[in-house]
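User: structure tokens for this one?
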Amino acid sequence: MAAQLGGQPVFILRPGTERSRGKEAQNSNIMAARAVANAVRTTLGPKGMDKMMVDSMGDIVITNDGAQILREMDIEHPAAKMLVEVAKTQDDEVGDGTTTAAVLAGELLKKAEELLDQEVHPTIIAAGYRMASDKAKKILEGMVREVSEDDEALLLKIAGTAITGKGAENAKDKLANLAVVAVRSVVETTDGKKSVDREDIKLETKTGASVEESELIEGMMVNKSRVHENMPKRIENARILLLNAQVEIHKTEMDAEINITSPDQLQLFLDQEEKMLKDMVDKIVKSGANVLFCQKGIDDIAQHYLAKEGIFGIRRFLKSDFEKMARATGATIVNNINEISESDLGFAGLVEERKMGGEDTTFVTKCKNPKAVSVILRGSTEHVVNNVETAFEDATRVVGVVIEDGKLVAGGGSPEVELALRLKEYAATLKGREQLAVTAFAEALEVIPRTLAENGGLDPIDKLVELRSQHEKGVKTAGLNVITGEVTDMWEEGVVEPLRVKTQALNSATESATMILRIDDVIASSSSGGMGEGMPPGGMPGGMPGGMPDMDFDM
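Assistant:
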């Protein structure tokens, strides 16, 4: 890129820099983003297909989770990367609807491209899309139904909808039940507002059994064994001490030298060390604890004394597991061994060590009111377990979102068809060119029911006509049952989703589409060659190193 200054060209960009402007830049960005959307489109819905992702190391991932597919894809194009961000945001915020968000963004860009061909300015399209998105959210509010944390049947339907199509349908009821019980166990209420921290649900995956053998532990499970074989393997009515301090002799922080001149002095020194460790164990015993979970180390001699006292001990806990254990058992984490009191102890009906998947594992169960739980997911192979884990995580996220918000909408493409109809009516009330963009937005929404039909092996045009007909009659919850191929009431079918899944998908898709539309110049730096490489000293004429002689820039 060059500018004229006193008859001399001034070069601004380094050699090899690529630049595309105007229609060329817009078409390139739209094409790249649509390619990404089309890559995940076939995974949408209960009958969506899977993708096999093979990385450079030969590791295989088989999934139909939109966010995971886009994470695994090695995407280079900057506009395409923006669509990956859409899926990532959707996954972070609500945990489900990632494919919907990506597909909708791609379709919005496709409709925008048609408007660009009709010479509609990108800023007008962007403004129209934002108007349509705002109106769509208001329309959605009128389609909402309330749900409470106590409505277990409805929560199970929500979890079931999230699990459907994730490769774990054969155990849908089992996983949905586990997800609902797990989430309801960790709900916190602050100032009348409910919140769910997904971190309080610890997931463990084990191969070698069927998915039906997955189970919920009302407490905690850790992949750790007792520190000493003479310790009891099983303790009922466990009084648990969580100690964030080492049961070892402190090493001095300064260099020290002890002169020993006789064997008796050495023995006295060793006896004193042992006495100090015995005193530490006595303080633990005096507190009434019969289970010790230590985040740091436990000396071999201390292990011996703990075993003699019949105390079950584990050392070197992960910090995250330690905090979950405190929430599960009601224990207070103690940081100083001299400050232990009986009130710091937690309770569990049973602490036992048993083998699972060939590993020694400790189970802390029968907790009184656990605010952290563990779920063990089983599967015959690693790939099966991974699919089950993805489905279960999505289910817990959506159930958590519903408990927090208390708002639901029907699924099966019914909200999108209703929004499309109402937005077309809204577009007719507008006078400017934004009317075209709002209409395009409405038509883009129909990509969801159309894709559901295509992936289910149904005729998309016939089903879309049938859906529109039902919605025009006032059946707002009419959606597509992909299993039977019929258009039915999604509330009666139990196909329901959190409101936040839809609003977040609308937000993400609209914002990313408008951002890509507003780009009219793409300047890509060269990946090789430094500034002025292979040029005479002093760089190009005009005194600036580097340059792009084939580009001009009017000053």
